[in-house]
Amino acid sequence: MSVKDELQKAHNQLDKFRHKLTAAKRAEQLDVIAQIEREMKKLTAKINTLKSKQSKQLSAKGETITSMKFHRALTKEEQADMGKLKKSVKGLVVVHPMTALGRELGLEVATGYAPKKF
């Protein structure tokens, strides 16, 4: 299971616990409330570790991409015909600014990274 899937699963479980906690508080079940709060703390800690793991993976991927020798912003025409561009440039990696990797790299426009000039 990928980190992203594990993170989503953990968030879903946390949401279920929040709903259970609300119901237990209405029913004034103190022992159930305490147990749910303990489980929520464990889950929150797990979420934090998964987020840090995801961030490290993203940083590592960003480093490998930025270490490529050549990069430049892509024109609208190149973006429109991405298949043709990828066939003509071997090893091309395109990063869009709205993706997590694009935000990590601080991109403003879609940028292509390649080992050779294109």
From TrEMBL:
Superkingdom, natural source: Bacteria
Keyword Coiled coil appears in the UniProt entry: yes
Coiled-coil region list: 7-53
InterPro entries: DUF2810
Pfam family, one: DUF2810
Keywords, in A-Z order: Coiled coil
Protein name: Ribosome-associated protein
Classification of source organism: Bacteria, Pseudomonadati, Pseudomonadota, Gammaproteobacteria, Alteromonadales
